[in-house]
Amino acid sequence: MAIPDNVTEIAGHCLLFLLVFGMSATVDIGCLLKQLRNRKAIISGLILQFVVLPFLGFLAVTILQMDNVTGITLLVITSSPGGSYSNWWCSVFNADLALSVTMTAISTIVAMVMLPLNLMIYSKLAFNQADKDFVHMIDFGPLFTSLVVVFAAISLGVVATDKIDSHNFNLQANRFGNFAGVALLIFSAVISNANKDAFLWQRSWKFYVGVAAPCVVALLIANIVTTYTGLKKPERVSSSIECCYQNTGIATSVALSMFNGNALSEAMGVPFYYGIVEISVLGLYCIGAWKAGWTKAPPEEPFWRVLSRSYEVAVAETLEKNQTDVEVKLTEGIEIAEEDEEYVHVPGCGTCLVLCHNPCTDEFEVDSVDNIPKMTPEEKLRAKRGPKKESSLDVIVQPKYLKSLGYKVKDDTVL
User: Fold this and answer.
1) Helix (H, G, I), strand (E, B) or coil at 81
2) Coil, strand or helix: which one is 330?
3) Which residues touch 191 (CB under 8 Å, ≥6 apart)?
4) Taking 90 as the threshold, does the pLDDT of residue 15 lie above it?
5) 60, containing H or E segment
6) H and E: helices and strands count for the chain
7) Which of 275, 253, 261 is nearest to 73 (CA)?
8) Which pLDDT value is given to residue 270?
9) pLDDT on residue 143
10) Is 329 helix (H, G, I), strand (E, B) or coil?
11) Residue 256 C-beta-side C-alpha neighbours within 13 Å
12) Phi, psi for 57 (deg, rounded to 5)
């Protein structure tokens, strides 16, 4: 008995919501605030997603002279960002989950404009068919619904992690999100295999090379770009995953609405094969990044432990414990207004306590309020609230390893 389409759609959106909520609630609110100001990571990520990968798809179609059916389906794939699945990959393999969640929120909005724009430009350039508007073949209803689901989940997740303010809550949310991610993967695989129109084998070598090339080349370019721009190592892994993990479901929907018969079978094989490639390539890449010391999980940790523990939470705890308390003594006669939110101070005395991530060990005096070190939003938030409740996680990430990833720590003290 076939499952009604509306039932599978509702089930898919429910699992999507649970996945994104779990991933968003995993991230410390301070880390999210910091990533929202990470211009280098956000700008480079958007360029990789919406400029580099669609162009690589266009190159594959034109250089290998793919037929219209395979070519247009591949262009749809390379123009469709992967959304929440990238969060799951970053969580399981301990990349920078805060950056991944931030990029998901931003790219979901940008995709509403860039997906049809890229498809319109490259389809006409590749096939010289100005009379055909492939954009109208896309059903934007499911895309808009996914946007609403993702944003609702991210918003509730951020509110939850902000209000509860507990590392242990972050840990439980991560476990919940990972479970939802596995369930969504299994659900998607079952639904995909139920469609017997996908024709994968006995294709020309151009099909296998052309469909796989954008994913592999984009992954290589993403690592070069993010390294050159000076992103922290876990941020490089997150940006690379965001770049090449695409939403093959959109291409499947387009194929079903555009083609029939043998053409449909040919088109359905493109997202199916690309899905196999991206899972295989990213799996190998993430394992390699972990062993190279690019993820938040130290390379000497057992593989089963890396997959079953949230190093996102462990790193947030370590960084919080490693913050430095800097004592700033004011010259006599200088006062600070209590309503001045730029600084954290002890009212009624001449001492101002400032939380600082930079390595500061000595007391120093200032002769003006303007010379007091200013704090970032996440530092002010943490200073006002005090330390978060610790988690029950049996993982400790040493400051020395975090320093090798690019994080600023007070010292290499073993915790």
Assistant:
1) strand
2) strand
3) 8, 12
4) no
5) helix 53-63
6) 17, 3
7) 253
8) 86
9) 63
10) strand
11) 12
12) -65, -45
Residues 98 and 27 sit within 8 Å (Cβ to Cβ): yes
Tokens representing residue 166 in the block:
């507990």
Three-class secondary structure of residue 389 per DSSP: strand
Specify whether the CB–CB gap between 222 and 244 falls below 8 A. yes
Lookup result for tokens 């994080």: 407
pTM of the model: 0.79
Q: Indicate if the alpha-carbon torsion angle 379, 380, 384, 385 is positive or negative.
A: negative
- Both structure tokens of 87: 């969060």
Q: Which residue has the tokens 């005090």?
A: 386
Q: What is the pLDDT of residues 124-135, one digit of tens each?
A: 888 765 545 556
How, if at all, do strands 324-330 and 364-366 pair?
A: parallel
Q: Is 188 helix (H, G, I), strand (E, B) or coil?
A: helix
CA 188 to chain CA mean position, Å: 20
223 vs 233: CA distance, rounded Å: 10
The one-letter amino acid at 100: S
Contact 137, 256 (CB under 8 A): no
pLDDT tens column, 92-121: 999 999 999 898 888 888 888 888 889 888
Q: Which DSSP symbol is given to 331?
A: P
Tell which phi-psi region holds residue 216, choosing left (phi > 0), alpha (psi between -120 and 50) or beta: alpha
**Cβ-proximal residues to 412 (8 Å cutoff; 6+ apart), any chain:** 398, 399, 400, 403
Q: What is the Cα–Cα distance from 203 to 89, expressed in whole angstroms?
A: 30
Q: Are 78 and 210 in contact (CB under 8 A)?
A: no
Confidence band, pLDDT 50/70/90 cuts, at residue 3: low
As given in the structure block, the two tokens for residue 145 are 């619904």
